[in-house]
Amino acid sequence: MAHLSVVKRNHFLSIKSIQILLTIILLFNLLFTVSLMAESQNIIDADIVSATRNNARFIKRHHIINHQKKINVGNKIFVINIFTKKGPNKQKYFVVHDSEDAAFDAGLRAIKHGGILIVLENNENRNLYSYGNPRGLTKQDPNRMFYKENLYWPVAKELIELSGNSPNRLIIVLHNNKPGGNFDLNHIKTWKNITIESEKDPDIRSLIWIPGLTIKPNKKVAKEINFYKKSGFNVVYEYVPKGERGDGSFSVYAAKHGIAYRNIEVEAGIKGNKKSELHSRKKQIKYLNTLRKYHKIK
User: Fold this and answer.
1) Distances in Å between the alpha carbon of 145 and those of 140, 157, 162?
2) Quick one: pLDDT at residue 29?
3) I want to staple 173 with a disulfide (CB 3.0 to 4.6 A). Which of 47, 91, 94, 162 is the partner?
C-alpha cells in the first residue's frame, strides 16, 4: 500500500509539473504574440493628424506614401517615419527632433514634386522615445548620438544609411529653436569653432548652418554662402576639427565623412496656434526654397 501511495504521489507531481510547464509555455507564447503585434502596428503620428496643420490632407492630395521602420536597441524599439513621393525631385530631408513642427511641415511640402522625408518618431518629444520595453522617453538627444560608442548608435547608423543615394550626397536637415531660448546669432557667435558668415536677416533665430573641415569656408562653400548673403539670409559656418570627436551631432559626423550637410533653423511656432504655426512654416520654406534653388533641386 505504501508503495502504491508513493506511485500515486509521484504520478500526481508529474501531472502537476506538466501543467505548470504548459502554463509557462502558454504565457510565453502570449507575451511573444503581443510583442509581435506591437512591433507590426504602425505608431500614430500626431504630426499627421494635427487639427491645425492640414498634413493628413496634404499627404492624401499629393499621393505621398508613408511607412515606418523600427530599430531595436536591446528591448527598446525606435521608430523612423519615411514619407516618399515619386517625381523629378529625389532629395532627402531629415527631421531628428519630433517636437519641431515647422521642420516637419516644411519637409513634407518640400517633397510635393518628389523626394523623401525621414523623421524620427519620438511621440512629439525632442529626445528619443522607446516604443519597446520599457516604453517611454530616454535621456538621449538624437542629435548627439552620431558616434559609434553611443548606446543608440544603431538608430544614428540607420539614419546615415537612409541618407545614402541622395543627390550630390547632400543632406538637408530641418530644425526649429524654442522661442525665448538661447539659440540665436548673438549666442551662437560666442561658441567655439563657429563663425557668423552672414547676418542679413534681422530675425536672429533663422539661419542656414554649414559644417566643414577647414577653419574658414573653402572656395566652393564661400560661393554658396555668398549666394545666401545676397538673398538676405543668415549663415553660420561650423569648423569641425578632424582629430576631435565633437558633440556627436549629425553635422559633425557628416563633415568628417565628406557628406555635404545643410541645416535650416527657424523659430518654432506656438503649438495649436494656426497663425503662429503657419508663420514658422512659411519662414522655414522660404529659407529651404533658396537653398534648393542654389543646389538646383527641382
Assistant:
1) 7, 9, 16
2) 35
3) 94
Give the CA count within 13 Å in the CB-facing half-sphere of 276. Answer: 9
Asked if residue 54 has pLDDT above 80, the reply is yes
One domain for residues 155 and 262: yes
Question: Do both 184 and 93 map to the same domain?
Answer: yes
Question: Is the pLDDT reported for residue 93 higher than 60?
Answer: yes
Supply the pTM of this predicted model. Answer: 0.85
How far, rounded to the nearest angstrom, does the alpha carbon of residue 61 sit from its chain's CA centroid? 24
Total Cβ atoms within 10 A of residue 282: 14
Could you tell me if residue 104 is left (phi over 0), alpha (psi between -120 and 50 degrees) or otherwise beta? alpha
35 and 91 share a domain? Answer: no
Distance (Å, whole) CA 169 – CA 127: 27
Please give the residue range of the domain that contains residue 3: 1-41
23 and 144 co-located in one domain: no
Residue 62 binned pLDDT confidence (cut-offs 50, 70, 90):
very high
- Residue keyed to cell 498634413: 55
Q: How far apart are CA 152 and CA 141, in angstroms?
A: 10
Q: What percent of the chain has pLDDT over 70?
A: 86
Distances (CA, A) of 237 to 147, 222, 230, 242, 297: 21, 10, 16, 16, 22
Strand partners, 68: 81
- Kindly state the cell numbers that stand for 48: 499627421
Q: Is the pLDDT of residue 4 over 50?
A: no
Region 222-249: mean pLDDT is 96
> Given the DSSP bridges, would you call strands 92-95 and 170-177 parallel, antiparallel or unpaired?
parallel
> And the C-alpha cell for 269?
511656432
User: How high is the mean pLDDT of the chain?
Assistant: 88
